[in-house]
Amino acid sequence: MSDTPTTSDSTPDRTPTPIHDRRIRAELLSKVARAQEDGQSQRSAAESVGVARGTLRHWVASDGRVKAPAGLAAFCATPEGIVWLQRVLMAAHWSISVSGGAGIRVVMEFLENSGLAAFIGTSYGTQQAFQAELENHILACADEQREALAQKMPHRTLSIAEDETWKDGMRLVAIDPVSGFIVVEQVSEDRSAAAWTKALESGLEGLNVTIIQGTSDEAKGLLAHVQRDLGAHHSTDLFHMQHEVNRATSLPLARAEQQAEKGERMAKARLEIEHIEERSYREQSHGPGRPPAFAARIERAEDAKAQAILAHERAQALREEARELNRTLSEVDHPYDLENGQARSPERLAEQLKTIFSRLAEISEEVNLSSKLCAHLAKAKRLTRHLVNTLAFFFMTVQARVDSLCLAPAIEQALLDHLIPGVYLSRVADRSDRAEERHRLHAMSAKLLEPLQQASHPIQSLDLETRQYLEQFAEECADLFQRSSSCVEGRNGYLALHQHGHHRLSHRKQRVLTALHNFATKRADGTTPAERLVNGHLN
């Protein structure tokens, strides 16, 4: 059997006539059986349902040749059995190939191993045609759901994460990081600002949204697309800054530590040799003459060993400090301090970033980084102003939205000082990969929200609907701060899994995967990205 490419978009060359449809055939056989039970002959029963007697005999003989238990074969010959087989086949393609990432041959193997091959054709062409029909049906359903989504969707303001992925060529991908909805995922030969803007316009067609922020790297095309074409704020991806710091310091500091460790081993070995030579000399008899100055030699070796140990410890300390400084970039790039929950002003963030990069510059001088590596560090330092600008944009936007509600001063202050910071810290806690940090941040979030739950607090005088609205409003404000496009990188990894099973992704397969992500995948709360896009935000 030839290995037909799985990217082929082939569809069946012909559509079976109704008389050969297995479900209709089962229904006709069932009617004939009931007619015969009522006393009719086979000939008259066949005529009553409009089937030739020869065809009827062929069907009965074919069902008798099925190699399966009699009870199962009898069930699968009924209309209900045919519907069940169709559901099993559809579920197999859906779970194994369409969303699972395996090829059609895995579906064929499943049908053979499960014994369903007695009832379902397992040839490659048959299963490929069925999957093509299933994928076309998925796309048609996705188009219907998207149209319904556009019709009932209120106006939304979105922040999007954008980046290129490189599986089977270049794809432009734009995702709403809050809902997870993929706005754009399409193949492109160009990543200019015009290409990005055209792709996004196509992805947003019919949706009542306004883009106020785009998070990405510093590619010129993306910058022009977000700032010039969309008129939105551009938020620099923090990862790219940390990556530049890592490129500048990681390898040279690791090498410095290795050299220092080697120097320590050599110094220890030299001292041991001096002791061995001294013992060897004293164990032998010697003539007149001055003995070697073992004491001085050992003292120098001990001094060299002590210096080598100190150098090794220093190299280790510098490497760990550089790592910690890079981690600190992530810790300080938050609108609210993760230690006390207080708002971090843009000026304070700028000062903290300045301190971090000043220390990194001192480390680079101490280890004598090359000019090429220092250029990476300088590039990272230049990005700090963008982080500060994003923080200023966040607080300015939040303040404007809170002002638009025209709340009482006490409630407005409660939003700014307690509710929004508490929600934000809870968001950060959920993303933390360390249990201890997760528990600490959740506890701090609860501490910030606790005053609002007191019966004496002004916010409790509001009706339940208003309080729920303010909570949802605070969630949206907290989600305004975006500093990463990692959701696009995660999407890239997901597509890579499918590429392994399909060699490459056809245009239709790519569209199917996008549709499944937006309208079929669910989080723990049971919502799809499309549902969260509609219901999870406020104006």
Characterize the structure shown:
The structure is a single chain. This protein has helices at 22-37, 42-49, 53-64, 70-76, 79-98, 104-114, 124-152, 193-203, 220-229, 238-282, 294-332, 346-366, 371-382, 384-404, 409-431, 435-449, 464-479, 486-502, 507-519, 529-535; strands at residues 156-165, 171-175, 182-187, 209-216, 233-236. Helix 9 (220-229) links the parallel strand 4 and strand 5. It is 65% helix and 6% strand. It has 539 residues and is α/β, with parallel strands linked by helices. Helix 10 (238-282) packs antiparallel against helix 11 (294-332). The chain folds into 4 domains: 18-144, no CATH class; 153-237 and 484-535, Ribonuclease H-like superfamily/Ribonuclease H (Nucleotidyltransferase, domain 5, 2-Layer Sandwich); 239-382; 405-479, no CATH class. 29% of the residues are buried.
Set down the secondary structure blueprint.
Blueprint: H1 22-37, H2 42-49, H3 53-64, H4 70-76, H5 79-98, H6 104-114, H7 124-152, E1 156-165, E2 171-175, E3 182-187, H8 193-203, E4 209-216, H9 220-229, E5 233-236, H10 238-282, H11 294-332, H12 346-366, H13 371-382, H14 384-404, H15 409-431, H16 435-449, H17 464-479, H18 486-502, H19 507-519, H20 529-535
Parallel strand pairs: 1-4, 4-5
Antiparallel strand pairs: 1-2, 2-3
Helix pairs in contact: 1-2, 1-5, 5-6, 6-7, 7-19, 8-9, 10-11, 10-13, 11-12, 12-14, 15-16, 15-17
